[in-house]
Amino acid sequence: MEGRRSSLLNLLKKIIMTDKFLYFGQFDQATTTITPNSDVITLTAVKSGADGNLISVQIRHDDSAGTVTTNVTGTRVEIIVGIGTGNNKDAGDIVGYINGDATAASYVTASGSGSNNAAADYDSGTVFLFNGDKSVCFPASSFAGMAPIDDTHLGVYFKSINNFDGYDATDGAEVISDFVSLTVDSDHDHKGMMNEICEALNSPSGGYGLITVATEASQSPVIDASFIHQGITGVSVTVKANIS
Questions:
Q1: Which end of the chain, N or C, is less packed with Cβ atoms under 10 Å?
Q2: How far apart are CA 81 and CA 70, in angstroms?
Q3: Structure confidence at residue 99 (pLDDT)
Q4: 88/36 Cα distance (integer angstroms)
Q5: What is the DSSP string of 21-50?
Q6: Residue 232, H or E segment
Q7: Separation between Cα atoms, residue 240 and residue 157, nearest integer Å
Q8: Could you give the 3-state DSSP secondary structure of residue 93?
Q9: pLDDT at 241
């Protein structure tokens, strides 16, 4: 058993070290929702990027109403909002507390309204924002092809990450492949972009490595936009959800 495990690990290392990976960096303002009652409060990071995923918010009845405490440790940000035990604070009050506090508002903005008060003992628990970083790295071995979507977009297609070979054994259905839409500038040089990607895939540099095809700019951390071809101006990644 141990010998078989060792062989499998060696095989995996060999595959990783001989494959190339295509990287697409996509960033957004991380967001989440909190529902202290039937009213929904939406929290959105002020800056786009992966650091937004390290911001959390907690609504607590143990802290006096209107108290907002922001704890910052490196890139980790914890915002605690007090609503007291009076059973008389609603979504509008909480939104006002967050947006009215200069420190908290420098990290997140809150939206939502309503008159349904939170329970006197309400505690949301620690709720993290998410989707600040939507980047994806596909192995070149899963590359399925490229084709223009329209005059201003080029589609790059891959086998499904979440569904492996793209087959649903439960009903025999084929899964639509994962794909990346690259925004094309006014020159509409789809062929030039496809050629650039193919050249990178065929490059003998070490036999493996990371190929950055397209990366959007990010505010936190600060990342400059980078594209494999000068005609690419944006990227949008679509990964098929797990259907099992």
A1: N
A2: 9
A3: 98
A4: 12
A5: EEEEE-B---EEEE-SSSS-EEEEESS-SG
A6: strand 232-238
A7: 12
A8: helix
A9: 83
